[in-house]
Amino acid sequence: MLDPVMFTGGVYKHDLVTELIEDLGGYLLQKNVTQSEIILLMLVPHDDMPVLEAMNKELRGKLERAPLAGTEIAVVTPTLAIHHLPHPACDVAEYLRRHGAKSNMIGMGRGVAREISQIDEYETALINEHDAVVFIFGNFTDCILKKEHLYQNLSVPVIITGGPEMKKEDLPYAFEYVPNVGRIAHRSRKATEIGSLDNIVAAAGRALDSVRSQISKDPLTTTPPRVMEAVREQVPDITQSLSPLPIALNLNGLRIKLPFEEYHEAVAMVTFDEGVTLGEIAKIVPSRMKNYILVRILPNSETGFVV
Q: Which InterPro entries match (predicted)?
C-alpha cells in the first residue's frame, strides 16, 4: 500500500526528499514552490514511512498524512445561478485543492427547487468519474431532505453540506453530513467558517480512506501513479496539453487530458516492463469531461496477476 503524505519545508535540500521517494519506489505527485517554502505531495510505501520520517526530522520539515492527495473530488451546486452559487462553493473547492485534491466544480442543469429538481444521466456519469463528491446545499432542512434523489444513485461517496444541524441518519444515501456551511455572501474568514471547511476536508479524507479500504480487498493490477509515469514516457504529446494538470490521478485509474479519438490507441499500447500493455489491464473509455481519455485499471480478480 502507498500512503499519501504531504511534506512542507524549506527549499534548501528538498531534492533529498524527492530522491529518497524515488529510491523507496514511491511517487512525487505535485510540487509547489513559494519564495522560501516548498510543498510536496507524495505516495510512499507504507513500510518505508519510518525512513522518510527520519529524513524529515533531519530537515526539520513538516510531514503529515494527506488522504486527498492523488484524487479528484467533484463540488456540486444545484445551479450556477447567483442564489445557488454563493462563496462557500468556491471556498470548498479551493480548500480541497490546498489539501492535495484535484477539485472540479459542477453546476447542475436542473437542480432548482425541491419538487422538480433533477439530475440527468450525463451529470451522474460525470460525477461518478470522481473519487468523491461534495454537494453544497442551503439553509433549509426540508430542502436538503427532499433533494436526496439527486445523489442516491451515485456510486462514489457523497458528502452533504448545509446550514442546519442534522443527523447523519436523516440522510441515508450520504456518507457524511457537514453542518454550518450554508449560503453566505462573503468569503470564509472567521475561525468557525474555516473550521467548517476543515470538517469537509476531514469528511472527504474518511470517504476516500473507505474507498482505499475497498480497493485493498481486491488490489488493482497496477497502481495509477505507475501508469501515469508510463504514459508520460511513452505518449510524449501529453506535454503539449494546455491543462494545468495534464494527467489527473484517481484511486482506481486516471484521466488523461488528450482527445480520445486521436490518442486512445497510443494510450492502450503503453507497455510495462513485464511485457503487458495498458489496454490489457485497464478499460480505456472516453471521459464525460471534454472527451478526455479515462483509464480504469482492472482489479487482480479480473486479470489474475499484478504488475
A: Me_CoM_Rdtase_prot-C-like, Menthan_mark_7
